[in-house]
Specification:
Elements (H helix, E strand, L loop, with lengths): L2 H6 L5 H5 L1 E12 L3 E7 L7 E6 L16 E10 L7 E12 L14 H5 L9 H23 L3 E2 L5 E2 L11 E2 L19 E3 L4 H11 L1 E9 L12 E10 L3 H21 L4 H8 L4 H10 L3 E4 H10 L16 H11 L4 E7 L15 E9 L3 E8 L4 H10 L8 H8 L5 E7 H9 L20
Parallel strand pairs: 3-5, 6-10, 12-13
Antiparallel strand pairs: 1-2, 1-4, 2-3, 4-5, 7-9, 8-9, 10-11, 11-16, 13-14, 14-15, 15-16
Helix pairs in contact: 4-6, 4-7, 4-13, 6-8
Length: 455
């Protein structure tokens, strides 16, 4: 039986009073002359189950080998606990050592730095903190699907291997079967052309939005950006909805609704894990999440945001000027100091955005938008897509892209084109916000970053 179910019980049945079997790992053990206390956890929740094992039960002879980290199976009776912080404890009738953990087990009962835990990513899910992180990751992934499925979106699996560069930045991982001396001979490669790991499922997602109306993708993406910041990874997951017959206003509405849904889910369904983050990571986490869940989002144009930043009197590390991308420090100033709430910035200069974004009537800006939240900055980036064939071709020319390479994408504008919009949410960015963790490496099970591809 899973401990999560046991610990949540208000009452226990007669059968559970008679006999229950659990399995898990030893967190701590305390011995006396005639019995032992063992704290057992099976990873299903934060709380441990206390087990009292008398010296005369079968298997007690192995109790001295049941060190921290050892796996055990225990059968016993559930009784109301007299100790604080727990409703039930188990009085063992039988105990069995399954897997021993010798003295060199790295996760002894003491504090460990996050840097050290990254070097043992195969064991760190056993810690209270990372167990909570990855249970939260699982719940948030469920909440993503719940949000879109409840709104009648179709879930689409877009390819991981692609010949298209969605962002036009060239920071992609090439995939090849050729030896180094033949790497330039594209025609001899597996697909007969250069192929890469995808940076986004957006372009393929648009093809399905132009057939099924409301779709979303949720899967791994890859960027070969040589960046070792706390917010970047080479492999990460993206949530990317696309909606037909939708403009920028509808796109912003959907993005804000998704952020609020995920934040509320983290607050309501954390089942105690949020307490870990509040205690060990960020004491103000719950307040910050409630702040986002309860307040309407501010909306401001990029031009107006730049004007506010220039007039702020703040000393920023990165310069502020029209035509430059907003940096995290600029985004956080807007959300934390000026508006004091989540903020959506929209209508960016066309020169700093990709080719697929719809050109506004001013001829200078595109219908791009970014959702900014306190503590993180940008958490969502999206746009209304350019549905007009002639302007799309002009955009591609300006970005030095060949329409022949994107012939299928151009076809969407030739045959029954419609206004449509979408966005991308970095799943790990959302997790950082929901947990308070300040390094993306600590919310990914096995982080892939420059110089690191272990495990």
């Amino acid at each position: 039986m899973r401990m999560r179910e046991l610990i949540k019980r208000v009452v226990i049945s007669e059968s559970e009073r008679a006999c229950v079997t659990i399995a898990g790992w030893v967190r701590t053990r305390r011995d006396s002359k005639t019995f032992s206390f063992l704290e057992i956890n099976d990873g299903s929740c934060l709380a441990n189950l206390q087990v009292v094992a008398d010296a005369d039960i079968p298997g007690y002879g192995d109790v001295e080998r049941m060190h921290t980290g050892a796996s055990v199976e225990i059968t016993g009776r559930l009784v109301a606990s007299l100790g604080q912080g727990q409703k039930w404890e188990m009085h063992a009738t039988q105990i069995r050592l399954i897997g021993e953990a010798p003295a060199d087990y790295p996760l002894q009962k003491k504090g460990h730095s996050l840097e050290f835990l990254r070097t043992i990513s195969h064991l760190r899910p056993r810690t209270n903190l990372h167990g909570a992180v990855f249970r939260m990751r699982s719940r948030m992934a469920y909440a993503v699907h719940q949000f879109f499925q409840d709104r009648d979106f179709t879930y689409v699996h877009t390819p991981i291997l692609t010949a298209s560069d969605c962002e036009g930045a060239g920071e992609m991982f090439r995939v090849t079967t050729l030896p180094p001396e033949k790497a330039a001979k594209d025609a001899e490669d597996f697909f007969g052309k250069k192929s890469f790991l995808t940076v986004s499922g957006q372009l393929e997602g648009e093809t399905f939005a132009c057939a099924l109306s409301n779709i979303y993708t949720f899967g791994p993406t890859f960027r070969a950006e040589n960046s070792n910041t706390t917010r970047h990874a080479a492999e990460f997951w993206m949530i990317e909805p696309e909606v037909a017959f939708c403009d920028l206003q509808g796109d912003m509405d959907l993005a804000e609704a998704l952020v609020k849904h995920l934040v509320r889910h983290a607050l309501e369904k954390s089942e105690g894990d949020l307490l870990v983050f509040e205690k060990f990571v960020d004491k103000t986490l719950r307040e910050r999440l409630e702040f986002v869940a309860e307040r309407p989002f501010e909306r401001i144009t990029y031009t107006a945001a730049v004007e506010l930043l220039l007039k702020s009197g703040q000393s920023f590390q990165y310069p502020v000027a029209y035509g430059l991308n907003l940096q995290s420090e600029h985004e956080r100033w807007l959300t934390e100091q000026y508006f004091k709430k989540p903020t959506t910035v929209y209508n960016y200069p066309k020169e700093i955005k990709p080719f697929y974004m719809r050109l506004n009537d001013d001829g200078k800006t595109v219908t791009a938008m970014d959702v900014l939240v306190p503590g993180i900055g940008e958490i969502v980036g999206g746009s209304q897509r350019e549905e007009r064939l002639d302007i799309l071709l002009e955009n591609m020319k300006r970005h030095h892209l060949s329409p022949e390479d994107y012939w299928w994408y151009v076809d969407l504008r030739k045959y029954g084109s419609v206004p449509h919009a979408g966005f991308g949410m970095g799943f790990e960015r959302m997790l950082m916000f929901a947990t308070g963790m300040n390094n993306i490496r600590d919310v990914i099970p096995f982080a892939r970053t420059p110089g690191s591809c272990d495990f």
